[in-house]
Amino acid sequence: PLDPQKQLIIFRIAQENFNNIIKHANAKNISVVLDYQPERLSMKIKDDGTGFQTSEVNTKGIKEKGTGIGNMYHRAKLIGAEFIINSELNKGTISQLSLTI
Q: Residue 81 carries which DSSP code?
């Protein structure tokens, strides 16, 4: 089993993802894929919403702690996970978390 603290952090990352989709994306569909292997856990959350320019994540300091996206990056870093967001205007967003166990 996965450490309870890591479980909670992964849950909070998913929760923040859903909050962002509800608040900002105007999505009609959300899909979640969890892949739990003996050596790796991956989570992929995809929506068909409005999307955004991912360049803004880097240029405006959004990865910093305190914003929704920033909190997801920060939490992933706390547990040694990789977190990536890909988005395209009018085509939705995909966020992916990958954790070596």
A: -
* Region 75-87 average pLDDT: 96
- How far apart CA 77 and CA 48 sit, in angstroms, is 27
Amino acid found at 77: K
Q: Give bridge partners of residue 85 from the DSSP assignment.
A: 95
Query: How far is residue 16's CA from residue 73's CA, in Å, rounded to a whole number?
Result: 11
- Contact residues for 65 (Cβ-Cβ < 8 A; gap 6+): 71, 74
Q: What is the mean pLDDT of the chain?
A: 91
Q: Would you call 5 helix, strand, or coil by DSSP?
A: helix
The span from the CA of 60 to the CA of 12, in Å, is 23
**Encoded tokens for 78:** 């706390």
Query: Hey, how many other C-beta atoms are within 10 angstroms of the C-beta on 26?
Result: 12
